[in-house]
Specification:
It contains 7 helices and 9 strands; from the N terminus they run ββββαααααβββαββα. With about 260 residues, it is an alpha+beta fold. It has 2 domains: about 35 residues, no CATH class; about 160 residues, Trna Endonuclease, Chain: A, domain 1 (3-Layer(aba) Sandwich). Strand 7, helix 6 and strand 8 form a beta-alpha-beta unit. It starts with a strand and ends with a helix.
Length: about 260
């Protein structure tokens, strides 16, 4: 994998370096890492994930007990980490769906010559079929895929899944492959829209879209969001919280360094 990928924005006046291995960004030539959109929205509490992790552990241990398995400490420890293994597996399959969609859009916009091949993995195939079903049910003119955006005003960066005219309206689109669509996702796409409008000077005319592709059922769940100003304000609140947490972490590190001396 490349050490870094450089992307020029704002007519070449700003160059962003993206580091794929760590999935971090910085302005080329500067020292500090930029805060990404997902890092900011990651500050928002998601109690449903805790409930899911607890449920996985409970179901795993009950299943073992029902099968007459003696539950010992190592089994409890293993069950307590089951959510991480499931999350990593789901993330891998989700990434494969995202990559297929990216290549499909690149093919549709004539940026590559070969259409992506049909996936062989069942869950990835289902996700792709859900994507194509959603596209078929709407009039889509794809404009960009995996578009990097950066806000000079608020100093955050992100990667927009897709930019397109959907049923004649210019829209930001974000693809999801998880189990549900949550409120923090609408704040995420609001941040992408604001940064892209800031750079291009062109206003989006349509709602923001979040489209979830179910990897088990091959069905899609599409949500359209208005209330841009309110959602962007919510994102800025999360961004400020992330900035403050980052600042406090730096203060702690500096104190530790001073104590060493």
């Amino acid at each position: 994998m490349a050490e870094k990928i450089l992307q020029k924005l704002y007519n070449g006046k700003i160059e962003i370096a993206f580091y794929p291995d760590s999935h971090r960004y910085k302005i080329e030539g500067q020292k500090d890492w930029l805060i990404s959109v997902t890092a900011a929205t990651g500050m928002i509490n998601k109690p449903q994930l805790i409930d899911w992790a607890v449920r996985l552990m409970r179901e795993e241990l009950i299943d073992k007990r029902n099968r007459g398995v003696h539950i010992d400490i190592p089994m409890i420890v293993e069950a307590s980490g089951l959510h991480r293994a499931r999350k990593e597996e789901a993330a891998t399959k989700g990434k494969m769906v995202h990559e297929w969609c990216e290549n499909y859009i690149l093919f549709k916009t004539k940026q590559i010559t070969d259409q992506p091949e049909e996936p062989t993995d069942e869950q990835v195939y289902n996700g792709v079929m859900a994507f194509l079903d959603w596209e078929q049910q709407n009039k889509i003119e794809w404009l960009a895929s995996e578009k990097m955006v950066y806000s000079k005003k608020y100093n955050y960066v992100g990667q927009m899944d897709a930019k397109a005219k959907v049923n004649g309206q210019l829209c930001v689109i974000d693809f999801k492959t998880g189990n549900a669509i949550y409120n923090d996702m609408r704040y995420q796409v609001a941040a992408y829209q604001a940064a892209d409008e800031e750079e291009t000077g062109k206003k989006y005319t349509g709602d923001r879209w979040i489209v979830r592709f179910d990897k088990d059922t091959a069905q899609f769940d599409a949500k359209q969001y208005g209330d841009f100003d309110k959602d962007f304000a919510a994102f800025l609140g999360a961004l400020e919280l992330k900035k403050r947490e980052k600042e406090l972490a730096g203060i702690v590190i500096k104190k530790k360094v001073n104590l060493d001396y």
